[in-house]
Write a structure and sequence with these properties.
single chain, alpha+beta, Nucleotidyltransferase, domain 5, 4-stranded mixed β-sheet, about 30% helix, elongated
Length: about 170
């Protein structure tokens, strides 16, 4: 996606809980091409729902490659599981652990502890997930790790820029 493109359609990457779909959406809203792949999550223990973020990126990148080989698109739009979270090292572009799905409940104790002083946060929000992963893998915050939702992870891997759409946060 790094080269300048002048197509009249937009590549739409839809990263769902169990499927990834990339489509070429034309100016009139019609879809001219579409590719799909399965996306698997793992549940290693009760309440944990995680995914391989590297595998997710490679699936997205492969689907985008197929689409762009057949269709000229001028932009990329990403829809995703808004609270699914990845923490990664920007210098290596590698995740430091499995990504946590929006369905993951491992931060429920943290959320309950925060509720006592009046902070209302749910375990399906990315903030509690990022906090937990940072505490586990960069407690003193010296490694320069980045944490974000799936759109931020995919955008970083495609462009080298750490960005998100503000309603995803």
């Amino acid at each position: 996606m790094s080269k300048q493109r002048h197509g009249r359609s937009v590549a739409v990457l839809d990263i769902g809980t169990s499927n990834i779909r990339v489509s070429s959406v034309n100016i009139d809203g019609s879809i001219s091409k579409e590719f799909r792949a399965k996306f698997n999550s793992l549940s290693p223990t009760r309440g944990f729902v995680e995914f391989d973020a590297e595998e997710l990126f490679h699936s997205c990148n492969s689907l985008l490659g197929k689409l762009l080989a057949e269709q000229d698109c001028s932009a990329l739009a990403i829809t995703n599981q808004r609270a699914s979270t990845v923490v990664f090292d920007p210098s290596t572009e590698k995740p430091v652990c499995m990504g946590q799905s929006w369905q993951d409940l491992r931060t429920a104790p943290l959320c309950l502890a925060l509720k006592a002083p009046g902070i209302s946060i749910s375990p399906n929000q990315s903030a509690s997930k990022i906090s937990l992963m940072m505490d586990l893998f960069d407690k003193d915050r010296t490694r320069g790790l980045l944490g974000g939702t799936i759109d931020a992870w995919i955008t970083f891997r495609l462009t080298g820029q750490f960005k998100t759409e503000h309603t995803n946060v």
